[in-house]
Write a structure and sequence with these properties.
Helix content is 23%, strand content 25%. The chain has helices at residues 13-24, 39-42, 73-87, 171-182, 205-213, 259-264, 307-310, 313-327; strands spanning 2-9, 29-32, 91-92, 95-103, 106-113, 118-128, 149-150, 163-167, 186-190, 218-220, 224-228, 232-237, 240-245, 248-251, 290-292. Helix 1 (13-24) links the parallel strand 1 and strand 2. Helix 4 crosses helix 5 (205-213).
Length: 328
C-alpha cells in the first residue's frame, strides 16, 4: 500500500495551494482529483473573463500575467499548470476518492482511477478541498434527466438556430443568455424572482435588461419551469401555465458542496448556517486529522469564499499539520 504523510482531495487552486504549503514544510503529500487539474475552472465557459485581477488568483508566490486587466479562463488554466509543474506536485488526475477510513495519523484513503482500478493509500493527515462546482443544484422537475438539460454552459455555437431556455438570473445565466442570443439562438429566460439579479456584473446587467426590454430575449419572471419534454417545456407564470417549443435547457441554478460525502466521513455541521464545525485556528474538522479548505469552510454559503481568499487556507492548514506531526 502506498504511504504518504498527507493527502489532499481536490486539485483546484485551493488544493494546489495546500500541496505547495505542505511541500514547503517538507511534508510528503499526494493530491487527488476526480477530473483534471483545476477541474472546475476547466468547466467554466470557454470565453470567461474573471471578475478579479491576476494577483488575487496567485498561489505559491508565482506571479500571474494577463494580456488584459482581468485574466481569462485560458490564462488561468495555463497559470495553474505552470505552478503545479514548478513545485513538482504529486497530482493524481482522474482518480476519485471513494472513502476515508481509519483515524488521525492512520488513515486509509480509498480511490478509483479512470480505468475503474481501486487503490488504497496510507496517510497521516487529510485535507478536503473539493469545492462545490461539481454538484449542480437540481431543478427537481420531470424530464430533468434528459440529455437536452445542461448544467454547465461552455459556449454558444452548438445552439445556433435552436430554441433554448435559460433558468436563472445571476451572472452565469445572464452571460449565457446573451452569448446564446448573439450566436443566433432563440432565447427564453425563466426566473422565480422579479428580475435580473443585482449581483450580475455591472457591464452585463444593463445589456441583458435591454435585450429583454426590446423583446430580443423573452423573459418570464416570478415563474418556474415545471416540466421538460423532448420538444417542449412547461412554465408556470403569473398569467398561468405556458408551453414553449424547446430544444435545450440551461439550468444555471448554482452549485453546492458535496455535504453527503462530508457527513459520511464524520464532518458535522452547524444546524443554523450549515457550516461544518472547524477549528478557526487550524481548520481541522470535528474528525481529528481531517482539515477543510476553500469554499467547504463556508458550507452552503458558497458566495463567501472564492479563490481570492480560499488560497490562504493552505498556509494555515499546512502549519497546523507540521506542528502536529512534529508533536507526535
Amino acid at each position: 500500500m502506498n504511504a504518504h504523510e498527507a493527502a489532499v482531495v481536490g486539485a483546484g487552486p485551493t488544493g494546489l495551494a495546500c500541496g505547495i504549503e505542505l511541500k514547503r514544510r517538507g511534508i510528503d503529500a499526494v493530491i487527488f482529483d476526480k477530473g483534471c487539474v483545476v477541474n472546475s475552472l476547466y468547466h467554466y465557459p470557454t470565453n470567461m473573463v474573471f471578475f478579479t485581477t491576476p494577483e488575487l488568483l496567485e498561489i505559491g508566490d508565482i506571479p500571474m500575467t494577463s494580456l488584459n486587466e482581468k485574466p481569462n479562463r485560458t490564462e488561468a488554466l495555463k497559470y495553474y499548470r505552470k505552478v503545479a509543474d514548478h513545485y513538482g506536485l504529486n497530482i493524481h488526475q482522474y482518480e476519485q476518492v471513494e472513502g476515508i477510513d481509519g483515524s488521525d495519523s492512520a488513515f486509509t484513503v480509498r480511490t478509483r482511477d479512470r480505468n475503474e482500478c481501486p487503490h488504497a493509500y496510507r496517510v497521516r493527515k487529510v485535507i478536503l478541498a473539493t469545492g462545490y462546482y461539481d454538484r449542480p443544484n437540481l431543478l427537481n422537475v420531470p424530464g430533468e434527466e434528459l440529455d437536452k438539460v445542461i448544467h454547465y454552459y461552455k459556449e454558444p455555437h452548438p445552439y445556433y438556430n435552436h430554441d433554448v431556455a435559460v433558468v436563472g438570473a445571476k451572472n452565469s445565466a445572464a452571460i449565457g443568455a446573451l452569448e446564446l442570443y448573439w450566436t443566433g439562438a432563440r432565447v427564453t429566460l425563466i426566473h422565480r424572482g422579479p428580475g435580473i439579479s443585482d449581483s450580475v456584473k455591472y457591464w452585463i446587467k444593463p445589456n441583458i435588461e435591454n435585450r429583454i426590454k426590446n423583446g430580443e430575449i423573452k423573459a418570464y419572471f416570478h415563474s418556474r419551469l415545471t416540466a421538460i419534454r423532448p420538444l417542449e417545456i412547461d412554465v408556470e407564470t403569473p398569467e398561468g401555465l405556458v408551453t414553449l417549443k424547446n430544444d435545450f435547457v440551461f439550468a444555471m441554478t448554482g452549485y453546492r458542496p458535496d455535504v453527503e460525502f462530508l457527513a459520511v466521513h464524520g464532518i458535522t455541521f452547524q444546524p443554523d448556517t450549515e457550516r461544518p464545525y472547524t477549528d478557526p485556528q487550524t481548520l481541522e474538522s470535528d474528525r481529528k486529522g481531517i482539515y477543510l479548505a476553500g469554499v467547504l469552510v463556508a458550507g452552503m454559503q458558497t458566495n463567501e469564499i472564492f479563490i481570492e481568499n480560499g488560497r490562504f487556507h493552505g498556509r494555515l492548514i499546512a502549519e497546523a499539520i507540521a506542528n502536529s506531526l512534529r508533536g507526535e
